[in-house]
UniProtKB/TrEMBL annotation:
GO CC term (a single one): plasma membrane
Keywords on record: ATP-binding, Nucleotide-binding, Transport
Signal sequence coordinates: none
The protein's name in its UniProt record: Amino acid/amide ABC transporter ATP-binding protein 1, HAAT family
Single GO MF annotation: ATP binding
Thylakoid found in the keyword field: no
Highest taxon, organism lineage: Bacteria
Residue stretches spanning the membrane: none
InterPro entries referenced in this protein's UniProt entry, alphabetically: AAA+_ATPase, ABC_AA/LPS_Transport, ABC_transporter-like_ATP-bd, P-loop_NTPase
Length: 265
């Protein structure tokens, strides 16, 4: 029996008449890099939002570390160790890189560093120093030391994505949900990001659930891949098996029947 950090059972979600997800079930093994792929509108982001608590599914159940989290609020799930980044960047553009990352840290602190007076009290100060040290480790890990004091909004897109990842990591997640972490990046930035994702998985032991359109990256770094199509699960399994599945080739990779036949032959 594999040890699953996340179990998703029969999740369905509709917006009015639009069925974003229909009866989707899957499990994510602890320690895995698990990728979700599928065409635009397939329900990938909706699935991540159900896991993070941003969306409430109409039916089904989500278990994290064997606890039913289906009805917990996003903050409670974050406290339990579910971190995330967004498809569209969600940084505070006017704040420094360091402060953006400290926001991710916020919920771990007993003394809220954002509430002024407490900051100057000695225990709070010590706590903040300890937090800063851990945050500096993450900054170092993601090679963003040189921009730590920069205003986030002034950075290149690739760097901002990395800062967003740092903020998610600052929450000390056991599971991290990444919605298209490499979208809009050039090749070099993509390669860097792929390496950081692998390293945070291997060195920090964080389980990764990632939505990504770049098949090269998906094939390279995933232990398991799931394909969504029109809100339904088409297949999940080892990357190569999924890519070689004829339904996937037809539905997702857009190959015609004869091309599938040729490849099979
Ligand atoms: N908040 C919402 N309100 C209404 N409809 C929504 C909402 N979120 C998602 N949908 C709809 O649900 C369906 C699935 O959308 P979703 O964003 O999950 O797809 P996706 O697979 O992430 O697509 P993409 O690759 O374009 O990011 C789409 O038809 C979308 O329009
Ligand atoms: Mg999406």
């Amino acid at each position: 029996m594999t040890d699953s950090i996340l179990k998703v059972d029969n999740i369905s979600l509709a917006f009015g008449g639009v069925k974003a997800l229909t009866d989707v079930s899957f499990e994510v093994p602890r320690g895995a890099v698990f990728s979700i792929i599928g065409p635009n509108g397939a329900g990938k982001t909706s699935m991540l939002n159900c896991i993070s608590g941003r969306y409430r599914p109409n039916s089904g159940r989500i278990q994290f570390n064997d606890r039913d989290v289906t009805h917990l609020r996003p903050n409670d799930r974050a406290d339990m160790g579910i971190g995330r980044t967004f498809q569209n960047l969600a940084l505070f553009g006017h704040m420094s890189v360091l402060d953006n990352i400290m926001v991710g840290r916020h919920h771990l602190m007993k003394n809220n560093w954002l509430t002024g007076p407490l900051y100057w009290a000695s225990p709070a100060q010590k706590e903040e120093l300890a937090h800063r040290r851990e945050v500096e480790e993450i900054i170092d890990f993601l090679d963003i030391t040189h921009v730590r004091k920069a205003v986030a909004g002034t950075l290149s897109y690739g760097l901002r994505k990395r800062v967003e990842l740092a903020r998610a990591m600052a929450l000390k997640p056991k599971l991290i949900l990444l919605d298209e972490p490499m979208a809009g990046m050039n090749l070099e930035e993509k390669e860097d990001m792929a390496r950081y994702i692998l390293d945070l998985n291997e060195e920090f032991g964080i389980t990764v659930v990632m939505i990504e359109h770049d098949m090269g990256v998906v094939m390279d770094i995933s232990h398991e891949v799931m394909v969504l199509d029109f809100g339904k699960k088409l297949i999940s399994g080892l990357p190569l098996d999924v890519m070689n599945d004829e339904h996937v080739k037809r539905a997702y990779l857009g190959l015609e029947e004869d091309e599938v036949m040729q490849e099979a032959g």
